């Protein structure tokens, strides 16, 4: 059952989307949305004013890990750039990556493989730090690098999750089917979504570059004959060796998600200390402070406008809503605002194969609006089980469809507050990145839904 707070949330989602469509910033609508939800729930203006701050705190808690890893990687990058070690690190890849096409798909495939084994968050930091300067030199703009990281990692890899199998395990448990069935029966859908979305995204990117609509950043000039200090050469060797060791440790000790990100972040900090000491000796104590300040300054600059936006959309989840506003303001049995909306939608429309697939796809996308991706896949699985019994179709195919749309939307391809890591590491606007991904991903979802209707 939907209440007034659900309708207020939906109203402000529409206002935010309308604001985005007019290419305007959405901070004020999101902040007012938090205030209005708090006021409706509590009938207390003092509480609702405080709810704005509480929601900011909740959003910051959710994002702090990403803020830290990005800030640390940027600090390390600045140190490497200053001593010209970055030039040495990227030189071996120049022979392989010769143009923007090879750059886009090289970045994407490496991201895909790493994300399958270690999840996208730690992979984003690794791939972005190493491949960004090479790709720019090959003629691929930074926004193109971010798109490749997003679409291959946060879209394709995370929505399939073939190796770690976290996503299909959650979906399968809710749908009452085997994990292997989700993977096997959904295989056509996974590849349809990936091929259509990534293919269209690159076509549109390449077209805009040729038409001059996208500016290609100045490439980093790398000379084979430029002399580098012995310290710079040591630093250039230490960084890839350190991160390769991380990858080995992730594989051996089955580290993923937050644990893998923590390992990369800690390694980056240690590398920063070692490189600073090697290159600056007695000045190292002061120099590392400058790098840390620069890194965190960049992190705060990128994330400061995102936190108010995320604060509003996180309220769609049960946990953050309860923490910011209190659980008593939702009806007993509520699974969170977004989940409640999805369930209400699914029960108000007549059932047939086409409608069932459309609802499953739509509900998955709606639950992805919180920027998580994973928050809605349990609902997707539960609905698939109900729909499969109602119209005699495969629950595994429906579950895979809901999993795809929830994660492609919310995992970090078209929701700006969900794709921050790639945007930050490539130093582009999350809003612009979301706009670039929007049409390809939407077309991919539509085509994948149509395919599902025929194979369900």
TrEMBL record:
The chain crosses the membrane at residues 6-22, 34-57, 63-80, 101-119, 125-149, 156-176, 188-205, 234-254, 260-280, 292-315, 406-426, 438-455. The keyword ATP-binding does not apply. The keyword Membrane applies. Keywords: Membrane, Transmembrane, Transmembrane helix. Signal peptide: none annotated. It comes from the Bacteria. This is Transporter. It comes from Marinisporobacter balticus.
């Amino acid at each position: 059952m939907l209440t007034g707070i659900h309708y207020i949330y939906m109203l402000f989602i529409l206002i935010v989307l309308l604001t985005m469509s007019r290419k305007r910033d959405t901070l004020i609508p999101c902040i007012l949305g938090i205030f209005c939800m708090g006021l409706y729930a509590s009938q207390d203006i003092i509480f609702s004013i405080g709810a704005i701050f509480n929601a900011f705190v909740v959003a910051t808690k959710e994002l702090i890990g990403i803020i830290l890893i990005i800030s640390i990687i940027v600090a390390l990058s600045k140190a490497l750039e200053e001593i010209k070690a970055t030039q040495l690190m990227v030189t071996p890849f120049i022979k392989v990556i010769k143009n923007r096409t090879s750059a886009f798909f090289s970045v994407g495939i490496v991201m895909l493989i790493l994300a399958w084994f270690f999840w996208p968050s730690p992979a984003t930091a690794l791939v972005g730090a190493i491949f960004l300067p090479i790709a720019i030199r090959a003629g691929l703009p930074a926004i193109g690098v971010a798109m490749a990281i997003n679409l291959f990692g946060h879209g394709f890899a995370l929505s399939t999750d073939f190796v770690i199998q976290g996503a299909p395990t959650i979906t399968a448990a809710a749908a009452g089917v085997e994990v292997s069935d989700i993977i096997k029966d959904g295989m056509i859908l996974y590849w349809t979504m990936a091929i259509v979305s990534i293919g269209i995204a690159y076509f549109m990117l390449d077209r805009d570059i040729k038409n001059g609509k996208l500016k290609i950043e100045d490439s980093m000039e790398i000379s084979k004959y430029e002399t580098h200090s012995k310290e710079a050469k040591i630093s250039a060797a230490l960084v890839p060796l350190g991160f390769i060791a991380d990858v080995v440790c992730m594989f051996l000790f089955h580290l993923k998600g937050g644990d893998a990100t923590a390992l990369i972040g800690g390694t980056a900090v240690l590398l920063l200390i070692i490189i600073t000491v090697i290159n600056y000796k007695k000045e190292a104590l002061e120099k590392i402070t400058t790098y840390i300040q620069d890194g965190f300054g960049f992190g705060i600059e990128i994330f400061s406008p995102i936190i108010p936006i995320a604060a509003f959309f996180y309220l769609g989840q049960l946990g953050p809503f309860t923490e910011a506003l209190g659980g008593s303001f939702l009806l007993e049995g509520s699974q969170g605002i977004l989940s409640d909306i999805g369930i209400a939608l699914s029960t108000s429309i007549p059932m047939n194969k086409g409608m069932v697939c459309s609802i499953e796809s739509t509900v998955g996308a709606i639950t992805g609006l919180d920027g998580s991706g994973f928050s809605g896949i349990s609902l997707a699985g539960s609905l698939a089980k109900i729909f499969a019994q109602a119209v005699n179709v495969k629950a595994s195919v429906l579950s895979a469809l809901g999993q795809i749309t929830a994660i492609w939307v919310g995992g970090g391809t078209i929701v700006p507050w969900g794709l921050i890591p790639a945007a930050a590491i490539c130093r582009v606007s999350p809003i612009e990145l979301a706009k670039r991904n929007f049409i390809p991903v939407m077309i991919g979802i539509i085509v994948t839904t149509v395919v599902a209707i025929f194979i369900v």
